[in-house]
Amino acid sequence: MLQKLQQLQSTVLEHLPSISTEDALVEYKNSILGKTGELTLILKWLKDLSPEERSTVGKAANDIRDILTEAFDAEKNRIKNEVIAARLQSEWEDMTVPLAQKSGSLHPMTQVRLDVEDTFTRMGFDIYESMEVTTEYLNFDAVNVPKTHPARDMQDTFWLEGDGNVLATQTSCMQNLIMRAKDTPIRAIIPGRVFRNEDVDATHDNTFYQVEWIVVDKWIGISHLKFTITTMLSDIFGKEVTIRMRPGYFPFVEPGVEVDFSCPFCDGDGCRICKGSGWIEFMGAGLIHPHVIREGGLDPEVYSGFAFGFGLNRLVMIRYGIPDMRYFMSPDVRFLRQF
Ligand code: FA5
After folding, report:
1. Distance CA 46, CA 55 (A)
2. Which of 27, 87, 154, 277 is the most buried (most CB within 10 A)?
């Protein structure tokens, strides 16, 4: 019996290192130490032995059970450690390596705005960001649109609670502030977001971007305006464009003009983008009204200036052939990835 027990012990101890999974180990353990396991069965036969033999063999059997139990526990730890080591090997990642990132790109509106700013920085203009919340005075009164003036109806305004605050409807709301804050000569470009309570469609939004220019100095005339606009457009489209001016009404300029430019896509021959006319209607401009110059703290007998302002959304649509303004604010990455 003793011999049988020792043989069982050495068989088990020899076999254990070859087991590689926890499940197989549990199964093997049950077959040896479980209720119907080999060692348990041997222990059951103890009762058939003489009392002397029972005490010797019983002690040996208990010792062997302890040795095997310990061996099974040790193997369980070995297998666990092997599993962890294998995972560490296969799932190892160097956290210090930079992630392969898909880099984004600047929104097309930002790209064109930066191009415009670049052109004018080179021409010695300062850049000021327009205010989004402004006052009724700056948005209207200071630019020659007093309370009773019908021109207030030209821009559907979001009025804010409180006294005389509005969401800026036009970047022209910065004209007075800049004239008061800066010494002449003033050469300023003012990009900004503006808001109008308008129905949204392919060519109108209630939130859009404008860019405004003002130049104030002695002897500023319409030829300076013409040169500045022509240079800017030729820069943006990468080819020489010509402009034409038509009379236009804006309360803060006199004379006021609407500016069209020759279609850069067909060079004036007529195409889908210019709707066959060879010209693209672009923006409002003019010489700054003497009332506005005076309200800005300057003497209109001495100083004159020009101002123009356009919708950046529409310029970007023309440059990239974008058919619908609503794409700009949509989070559709398929649209954004094209730029
Ligand atoms: C103005 O806002 C004047 N402040 C521009 C100006 C400045 C004239 C300086 C003279 C001197 P207007 O309301 O036309 O003008 O708007 C200017 C441009 O903003 C338009 O030509 C158009 O391109 C754009 N715009 C106007 N309304 C919308 C709209 N709802 N959605 C998108 N773009 C618009």
Report:
1. 9
2. 154
